[in-house]
Each structure stands twice: as C-alpha cells, then as structure tokens.
Amino acid sequence: QIAREHEVMKALWPGEAVSFFVRNRSKGFFVLGSVFLAITGAEALYADMGHFGRRPIRIAWFALVLPCLVMNYFGQGALLLRDPSAVASPFFRMAPEWALIPLVVLSTLATIIASQAVISGAFSLTAQAVQLGFLPRVHIAHTSGEERGQVYIGVVNWVLMVACIALVLHFRTSERLGIVYGVAVTTDMVFTTLLITACARTTWSWSLPLTLSVGALLLMVDLPFWLSNLTKVPEGGYVPLAIALGIFVPMLAWKKGREGLAAIIDRRILPVEDAIAMIAQSKATRVPGVAVFMARDHRDTPPTLLHNLKHNKVVHERVILLTIRTSERPTVPVRERLTHTDLGSGFHRVVIEYGFTDQVDVPSSLRHCSIDGAQLDLPRTTYFLGRETLIVRANTPILAGLWKHIFVMLNRNAESAMTFFRLPPQRVVELGAQIEI
Q1: 93 Cβ partners below 8 Å, 6+ apart?
Q2: Which helix (H) or strand (E) holds 145?
Q3: 385 versus 175: which is more confidently predicted?
Q4: Quick check: helix, strand or coil at residue 53?
Q5: What gap in Å lies between CA 123 and CA 157, rounded to an integer?
Q6: What pLDDT digit, counting tens, does each position of 190-236 carry?
Q7: Which of 76, 102, 108, 99 is nearest to 89 (CA)?
Q8: Residues 120, 134: Cα–Cα separation, whole Å
Q9: Which of 310, 248, 316 is nearest to 286 (CA)?
C-alpha cells in the first residue's frame, strides 16, 4: 500500500502535523482524541518493566514493534488516500481477501498478549501497594522460584474478568470502548507526568529549573491529548474516572485507617526498655523455648507480649521482638534484610526489611538469625500474633464514619498475618482484642 501511495511518507515530517492543525484549527484538536488511539498500548510496556527489565523491552520496541506499527499505520493511511471508502475497516482491507481469517487470528492473539501485559501489571501493582501499606493484605501466589516479581493474585484476576465482561456488555462496540480507553490512558499519562516531576524534585534532587523544564516538555505532549479526550467524558469516558475513584477511595480509607489505628495503639504501648524492666521486676515464670512477637515499631513493646504475660503469667527464655519493614527500594538483598540487637534478659530485637517487590517469608529470613551464638530452632519456635476486632464509635460523624466503615470492612476481609508472613499454622498463637476507632 505504501508503494502504491508513497505520498503518505510525508507524515514523517513534523511540519505536516503543524500544517494540519493550521488548516483545521478546532477540528484538528478534536481529531487528536481519535489519533491518540494509535499510540495506546505502548504504556503497557511499563507494566512489564519489572518482569523483563529495560534492555529486552528496548530491543523489542525499537527493532521490531515500532517499525511494524509505523508501516501498518502508514499502509492504512496510504490505502485511505487511494480509496476513502475503506475507512470502515482499513486494517483488514489492506490485505487480499484470502488473508482475512489469518488477520483475524493474528488480531485475536495480539489482543491476548496485550491483555496479559495489563493483567500482569495489575498483579504487580497490587502486590506493591500491599507492601507499601496502601491496600490490605491479599493472597499473593509467587509463580516462580527464580524470577522476582512473577506473582498471581486470584481476587484481582476475578475482578478484572467481571469488569471486562461488564464493560463489553455495556458498550458493545469497540468504537465506544475506544472512547473509554482514550480517557483512561491520557489521564494516566498526565498524572504520571505530574508524579514523576514531583519525584525528580523531591527524590532525585533535580534543580527547580530543570524539573519544571522537563515537566513542561512532557505536559506539552500529554495535555493536548488529555483535553481532547475529556470532551468524550459524557459519551462514556466517565467510566474509567468512576473506576479510578472506586479504587482510590478504599486505598485512602485503608491508609487513613491504619494511621488512626496506629495512633490508638501508640497510646497504649510501652517502650521496650520499660517493658523488659517491668517483666524482670514481676519475676514472671520463664519457660523454655523461643517466642516471636510481631511488633509494628521496633521501639515499642508488642501488645501481644503484655497480653500473654497478663493472662498466661509466663515469658519464654528467649523472646524475639520482630518488626517487618518495607523499603522504598524494589528489592533488598537477602544478606542485608535482617538486623539483630541483643536487648538483654533474654530479649532480642530483630528487624527484617523487604523491598516492595520482594516475597515476604518470615521463617526463611529468620534462618539467617542467630541468638546467643546458635541458629534458631524454627520448627520449635512459637509465633504470637494479635488479631484486633475493630468497632466504629456510635457517635462518629457521617463523613468520618464512612471511611472508618470502609476500613473496618477491608480489615475484616484482609488475608491473615499468619498466611501473609508465611508462618507455620501449627506454631502460631493469636491473641485478640477489641478496639474502638
């Protein structure tokens, strides 16, 4: 098609785009909303970045995908220049009739591959949001013992399936779905640009002029596409915005709820040093064995330790106060994860730090911990966990009560700490408490 209508190659010259907008003015602006659909899908490459790395994606994109896409779109454009009636289906009309079925098969396979990138991206983002404390714990299946980041999350998979079926039934045609997709991707691009600009300034310590220059350059590309797509919000573009709001509100409620719960617990907690002194003075019975108490903060005494002492009147000979941290790094080397401090009187502080893409496995990490010069006897170690039952106060204002009820619901349905931290069920003791929020 390009050979038959080589004039289409002029589109490589940026001046043609300028000339187009000069000639069409406001109509050219609205055309951007449709033109944008030609470049959607490229953002899915970033979903696979954590799985494959930059090098293979760069090679695949510049050596194969980008040249093929350019030839494909230029071929469609050449066909339309020669035969405007082919506008209904230029992709399939480019090829001879015998190639129709093979092209349908090829398109179906391409759709499956593209959807896989989005699915794997949804799994990765959910796992990282859980690690960073923006979502409640969910069951994460690690599908590879060698490759980091290969995860499967059943609940996300089911939600995606139901959502996809609902969207297809509601919009029915690919043209209407294209409107939804354009609004979703352009909004995502604009917010990503704003976030990475803030990151460049606060995290990478770029100078203000450089940060503003790069941010403005990116927004010069993003904003026209975004504004042109926003005109399609009444036609169905409201759907991705509603979905985004439906994800953001629970994340905000979970984050605020955890902070509020932490503040309540902080008021009841003793510093570790005071608790050790109090236990020494109480002359509590010391029983053989190692007990691990999960502590939210390494400076505080786990409430489960005090509950166990109050109700069972015993303390193990060796007590480990274990704190799990999530680093802002994607991964933390195994040998750098564990920090051990001897607090005296048989008490030990252990901090395990994971990257936000690392697989959390407490017993595996504790294998690298030695107490009093000896490795832990993990099969005989007892893990004490707290299970809080949250209750919203009756006189809570409506707006504050709404996010609190969302937080309580999320907390009730979160995966248990025993499963999330991969603790052996037969070695876990749970101590419950009711907390008003």
Answers
A1: 79, 83, 86
A2: none
A3: 385
A4: coil
A5: 8
A6: 999 999 999 999 999 999 999 999 999 999 988 988 988 888 888 88
A7: 76
A8: 19
A9: 316
